[in-house]
């Protein structure tokens, strides 16, 4: 989690080695190995987690690409919503910044 | 980790519904707390965090808009232009009679309160059709232009609130608005036609970012809900949404909101 | 030194051991050294734990150590009070010495809740039929203990009234069959079907109202080492006059509630997470509402038959 506002150019990734997940229906339980905390994700936040897993992306790329990933029109997934969703995962330490 | 996107239509539809909740500011991630000394027994003891500032605008008919736009306030009145902007960009819109009277504004001092007399959001047969248009697209502004004294489109040139409407008291401008605005709006424009662009026909509630809401805090000793204040209103609106779109069980903290649903179904 | 049922010891020896802190209670997964200073808690312990295995003597090792004692020297002699002392600083409110059995039971709960890290603990009652367990999730005022006691009368084995103790390796539940705590109206209800000799004297005016305890049976003690795999979890809600109702609930919500009820989930961390998720795999969860003991038993029976049989 960053101390201040995130820049769109910063690169982020989700490292699957840093947590364990368990699905119960549409809910994903995530145990973070870094913090020892358990989180519950729904289909949307899980999708964001999956979207960021593997290939690092800038926040700008996340904002630009997430609606397509969800297969929804862009107007249903405006940038403010995507940023807020990203921030939720960032706040709980599930996404990590890759330093240059 | 399951990395495949389940592509069946039902799954995509459920996810899309949840996305709308997220757009309204409802959290998508819930962090679970365990207590060493006070085991929590009830589903109502769950809590969730509002990560970003949320504002809820309510009119006298119980219609509500949820978003984070800026609305200037002066002497208990709100800038009409800002009101319009807020409505246009609202993340979420709830139809008339959604919000109970105790959360609605008192009578407007212009004598009318039907700024939201129209439910001009197009296909809202169900009463909730406005949700689809609540993302700042063109549907958002249609129904309420009549209430906005400094609506550029309506007045064709009164771009600000510097008193250009001094002659436009509610009686005079309402007929003008009916002509120039939505035809099905028979409410008056008491939002400030004669007020230099300020209105008191609304009430604004704000929830700060990183606010924790614990639904059980709104339950009194008799087991009755006591939804008050901005947080109580937020819970009520979120519950109304779920009431319409249903609960697929996959939303974090759904038990919190389900308890609220039970309350709403009893009303 | 081999543990033997408490009642097999000479009473005087047992009392001496309790007062000197040389009695170790070997119950289920835990051993607790117990030291009591007043006659009420001693009498209660000798009665309610008569069938339980204990060791007398200095040499026995124990997981926990609990003393029920006056809060200070003054209270030993005037307006007698007691507090449970689990051996580490814990802010317990002193109770009148007449309520010392309550202090004892609270202290035993605290010892496990705050010092157990080998198993994940969740606040719930557990009964079993054979090696399959039913978890009764603790909702305040919901009737967990009355239901637990009623199911015991129906032949279910008591694993624990207070804690679901999850073995993290096997995802099964371990036994800790201590007396079942009953409150207020449920006391007479349970006395009615279990018999007066199975229920302790009632303590009146406690912070929780009137309290009494239903002793664990010999069979529960004898089989306490047998783990049980949980199959169903119920969230009971007793409402006077309510028609019986049963509603399946989402396991995700169940997991959330169990985690919230756990005193040591956070401390154990990853193993508690995987243990809990493994435990929940294949389980079913229900909310049950009822207005009588008969209805609660019928609801449980129906659920159990449909899901387990």
Outline the structure in words.
The complex is a heterotrimer of chains A (100), B (267) and C (309). Chain A is an alpha+beta fold and 100 residues long. Chain A has one domain. Helix content of chain A is 34%, strand content 24%. In chain A, the strands form 2 sheets. Chain A has a 3-stranded antiparallel β-sheet. Chain A has a 3-stranded antiparallel β-sheet with strand order 2-3-4. In chain A, helix 1 crosses helix 2 and helix 2 crosses helix 3. Chain A is globular, with a radius of gyration of 13 Å. The model of chain A has no long low-confidence stretch (mean pLDDT 91). Chain B is α+β, with helices and mostly antiparallel strands and 267 residues long. Chain B folds into 2 domains: 78 residues, no CATH class; 149 residues, no CATH class. Helix content of chain B is 26%, strand content 13%. Chain B has 6 helices and 10 strands; from the N terminus they run H-E-E-E-E-E-E-H-E-H-H-E-E-E-H-H. In chain B, the strands form 3 sheets. Chain B has a 4-stranded antiparallel β-sheet with strand order 7-4-3-9, with helices on both faces. The radius of gyration of chain B is 20 Å and the shape is globular. Chain B starts with 8 loop residues before the first helix and ends with a helix. The N terminus and C terminus of chain B are likely disordered. In chain C, a hairpin with a 2-residue loop joins strand 2 and strand 3. The relative contact order of chain C is 0.13. With 309 residues, chain C is an alpha+beta fold. In chain C, the strands form 3 sheets. In chain C, strands 8, 9, 10, 11, 12, 16, 17 and 18 form an 8-stranded mixed β-sheet that branches. In chain C, strands 1-4-2-3-5-6-7 form a 7-stranded mixed β-sheet. A 3-stranded antiparallel β-sheet of chain C has the order 13-15-14. Chain C is built from 11 helices and 18 strands. Chain C folds into 2 domains: 112 residues, no CATH class; 188 residues, no CATH class. Chain C is globular. Classes of the chains: A alpha+beta (100), B alpha+beta (267), C alpha+beta (309). Strand 4 of chain A pairs antiparallel with strand 1 of chain B, so a sheet runs across the interface.
